[in-house]
């Protein structure tokens, strides 16, 4: 009927939805909102067949695995406010989350692209944004990311755990409730493989750590630094590809979110929402109203089998918005040839992000 | 004042626009529409400063070159019909093309991302589509592609010539006039580099040609074949990543468009518009009206320095349209991690493309 696990600072309560999918509450504040009442642990919906995850196909031309996931064609698309599946349940309506309120919750995606795809809700408030999360709640999100990275990363056949958020209809998001996703890939995806290969080449050639040198180089240059603390640095990379792009890296060599220590997690819990709030002030309308930025926020963690210390945790936040009324599209040069063209100058992106600090 | 060059089957006339950009007419039918009258060779517009091309930055994290092209922020965006810069000039209005009519024309882009970026207009008719081009005119487009590939590929510092077309506002196209683009990269872009590396690995491991075996494998399997002729095969790849995707390859080992012989060009001139017309019948509205498909059509040619015969010319046509009212977005998994998830089944895409034949 559910199990309670000690995770630092949060209470994790695990249960199972009526179709067999796992759900985990991460509660941070007493009286705990979820996990106490039976109704938080019991999904009253009738059991329904689970959608099959996609199948993998190998692309010999590029060496990539492609997931063919036809069942996802029918997934929920921009439901109205009365139909939000990520809101807490009420006496009248059962959603994906049986509890009547929650702090942070993670559960298996009903329309999985891969065998292990999870959804993480950052707040029970459908109108919340990550930029408005208090550090205490953001810390709970970080604890949940670290927990899922550890658990999924230890599962058979998982080679890469990817915590990310797509926000905005411009990224194809089908639900507006504040949430992210956690994918456990049964292969090392191309980007992680490329960064790992580059880091190993650099180690072989110079003996140094590519990603650490990159971060130190940005702090040293200073022109693209957006924020820096005792444990983290945020900067626009020298060769940024997106109209708005920020990279966030720990100062210490750390392979993944699980390896962050308490101080690092605490600082990140302040920095992450603060950066997101700046992004929401990046563009504004002619009369000064902020334009919430569509973005992809992506945590690059070491592949589960990469234990040589060359891969270093980093976050990239990327937006396709070029101006208040224009988007960047990934067309021929980017999508077909992999050659990125950025209309924005990285130093100017960084200056704008510094201005947007409060 | 302009030079006339013999290209098989077409007359090429080169001139210079008032700001110094090169323009080449490719005429195929007498009386030649352009290049005869002085006004076709003289741009009456006052000289204006040329926009600077972008600068390159090296991304050590991935090994990619990124182009930072801030001058492009001001480029022409969806002009009205009276302002189409790709239409022929009239007595009252001077466009990018001084001639009062033309068959096919190529000229340097006014807002270049790279030092060598060209625009190719497939027709002087702003409402034409590639799917409606007669084979004779398509042949002229092929001759123009081959000419530009040879000329640009021989220029100092050019490592890759890329002929492509982005169509539809969904791909970010800023002009609706039927046109494509030709980029001459001063580096080998990631996709071409990846395919070349894979082909060489395969040669080393097996002695065979990866891209030839891939094409023969598709013809042998048959389930994803869309069209095949005496010289070309068109198929949906086994691991297609896009909701609609077709690959077109010559049966003979050929590195690039210049190396195609007369018979191959002649067949391609029929096949290419025929496939494009099928794409325009792929989706239709509830009352049966066809929905023109947004797409990226991309020619993968051997990098200029790759003379070992492992790289084989192929075309990929990709669309982000998932259904009459839904698009695929390249979000976290694709854009950030390089792990593609396709909601469409390749065999079903191929079946639909076979049905769409007339």
UniProtKB/TrEMBL annotation, chains A, B:
It comes from Tomitella cavernea. GO terms for molecular function: nucleotidyltransferase activity. Residues 203-355 form the Galactose-1-phosphate uridyl transferase C-terminal domain. Coiled coil: none annotated. It is an enzyme of class 2 (transferase). It comes from the Bacteria. InterPro entries: GalP_UDPtransf1 (IPR001937), GalP_UDPtransf1_His-AS (IPR019779), GalP_Utransf_C (IPR005850), GalP_Utransf_N (IPR005849), HIT-like_sf (IPR036265). Keywords: Carbohydrate metabolism, Galactose metabolism, Metal-binding, Nucleotidyltransferase, Transferase, Zinc. Belongs to the galactose-1-phosphate uridylyltransferase type 1 family. This is Galactose-1-phosphate uridylyltransferase. NCBIfam families: galT_1. Its cofactor is Zn(2+). Residues 116-189 form the Galactose-1-phosphate uridyl transferase N-terminal domain. PANTHER family: GALACTOSE-1-PHOSPHATE URIDYLYLTRANSFERASE. Its EC number is 2.7.7.12. Pathway: Carbohydrate metabolism; galactose metabolism. The lineage of its organism: Bacteria, Bacillati, Actinomycetota, Actinomycetes, Mycobacteriales. It catalyses: alpha-D-galactose 1-phosphate + UDP-alpha-D-glucose = alpha-D-glucose 1-phosphate + UDP-alpha-D-galactose.
């Amino acid at each position: 009927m559910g199990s309670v696990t000690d995770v630092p600072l949060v209470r994790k309560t695990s249960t199972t939805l009526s179709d067999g999918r796992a759900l985990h509450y991460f509660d941070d504040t007493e009286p705990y909102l979820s996990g106490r009442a039976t109704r938080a642990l019991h999904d009253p919906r009738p059991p329904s067949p689970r959608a099959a995850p996609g199948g993998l196909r190998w692309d010999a031309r590029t060496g990539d695995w492609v997931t063919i996931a036809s069942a996802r064609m029918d997934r929920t698309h921009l439901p109205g406010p009365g139909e939000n599946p990520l809101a807490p349940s009420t006496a009248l309506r059962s959603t994906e989350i049986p509890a009547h309120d929650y702090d942070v919750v993670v559960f298996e995606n009903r329309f999985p692209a891969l065998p292990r795809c999870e959804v993480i809700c950052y707040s029970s408030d459908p109108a919340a944004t990550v930029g408005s999360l208090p550090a205490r709640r953001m810390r709970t999100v970080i604890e949940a990311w670290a927990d899922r990275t550890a658990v999924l990363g230890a599962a058979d056949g998982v080679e890469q755990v990817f915590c990310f958020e797509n926000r905005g209809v411009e990224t194809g998001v089908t639900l507006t409730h504040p949430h992210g996703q956690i994918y456990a890939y049964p292969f090392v995806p191309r980007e992680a493989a490329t960064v790992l290969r580059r880091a190993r080449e650099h180690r072989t050639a110079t003996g140094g750590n590519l990603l650490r040198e990159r971060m130190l180089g940005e702090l040293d240059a200073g022109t693209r630094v957006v924020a820096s603390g005792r444990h983290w640095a945020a900067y626009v990379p020298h060769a940024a590809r997106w109209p708005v792009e920020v990279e966030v890296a720990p100062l210490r060599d750390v392979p993944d979110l699980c390896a962050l220590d308490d101080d690092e997690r605490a600082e990140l819990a302040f920095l992450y929402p603060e950066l997101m709030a700046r992004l929401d002030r990046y563009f504004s309308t002619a009369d000064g109203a902020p334009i919430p930025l569509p973005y992809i926020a992506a945590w690059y963690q070491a592949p589960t089998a990469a234990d040589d210390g060359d891969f270093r945790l980093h976050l990239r936040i990327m937006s396709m918005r070029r101006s208040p009324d224009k988007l960047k599209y990934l067309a021929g040069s980017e999508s077909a040839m992999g050659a990125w063209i950025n209309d924005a100058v990285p130093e100017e992106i960084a200056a704008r992000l510094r201005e947007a600090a409060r």
